[in-house]
């Protein structure tokens, strides 16, 4: 099966480097994406829009041999969900890792300071979200911050556009890293993640750790993706 891997903010396709060989050894073809504006840190990304990144995911879905398994991480979940909305008949299942699909009209990541059209990664301890990086050691965390690629401002703030309710019929798996499945279910029940509440077929998988399991526990994440992919082959 073709597995399209959509990174979250501040990452390029190399964030999936430790996951890809595990998927391929299980017989799948992995397509880790580097989205527009994320090619390198010294990139002019001020004019990159959310629609540009969604279009790149749609192109990868179109290039797949049959229906793809679509995987989004963090705000990449929202980007992947919009691509699913554009191609609901070309995706067998979707996996959201540490992120949720956003509803129509919402922004994916509002509220972060932008400079010259781009948003730098915050210090997660300083903003009170230490759980995001709890499974990095000090050396690896320093390297993670140093290698972070600024995110295009418009990708964070442009409104999500969803038009095809068939997206809600595609089975979804919510992979829960720094929060638990119990936490996420409670947010769904409270109406805080309405697009997840609207999904017709959704399951939840606890993986533990921090927000970036493709970097800190690729073996475990790959096992989850391989198991989910097997359902799409049934």
TrEMBL record:
Superkingdom per UniProt: Bacteria
InterPro entries cross-referenced by the UniProt entry: AB_hydrolase_1, AB_hydrolase_fold, Sec-Metab_Biosynth_Hydrolase
Alphabetically ordered keywords of this record: Hydrolase
Domain AB hydrolase-1: 3-223
One annotated GO molecular function: hydrolase activity
Entry protein name: Alpha/beta hydrolase
């Amino acid at each position: 099966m073709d597995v399209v891997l959509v990174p979250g903010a501040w990452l390029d396709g190399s964030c999936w480097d430790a996951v890809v060989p595990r998927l391929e050894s299980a017989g799948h073809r992995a397509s880790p994406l580097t989205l527009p504006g994320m090619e390198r840190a010294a990139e002019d990304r001020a004019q990159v829009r959310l629609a540009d990144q969604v279009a790149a995911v749609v192109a990868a879905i179109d290039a797949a041999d049959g229906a793809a398994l679509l995987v989004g991480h963090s705000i990449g979940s929202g980007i992947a969900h919009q691509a699913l909305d554009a191609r609901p008949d070309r995706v067998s299942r979707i996996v959201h890792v540490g992120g949720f699909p956003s509803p129509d009209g919402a922004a994916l990541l509002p509220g972060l300071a932008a400079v010259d059209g781009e948003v730098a990664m915050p210090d997660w301890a300083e903003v009170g979200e230490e759980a995001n990086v709890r499974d990095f050691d000090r050396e690896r965390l320093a390297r993670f911050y140093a290698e972070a690629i600024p995110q295009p401002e418009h990708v964070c703030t442009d409104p999500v556009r969803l038009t095809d309710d068939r997206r809600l019929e595609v089975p979804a798996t919510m992979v829960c890293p720094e929060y638990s499945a119990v936490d996420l279910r409670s947010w769904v029940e409270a109406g805080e993640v309405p697009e997840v509440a609207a999904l017709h077929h959704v399951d939840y998988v606890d993986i533990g750790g921090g927000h970036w399991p493709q970097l800190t526990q690729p073996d475990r994440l790959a096992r989850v993706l391989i198991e989910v992919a097997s359902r799409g082959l049934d």
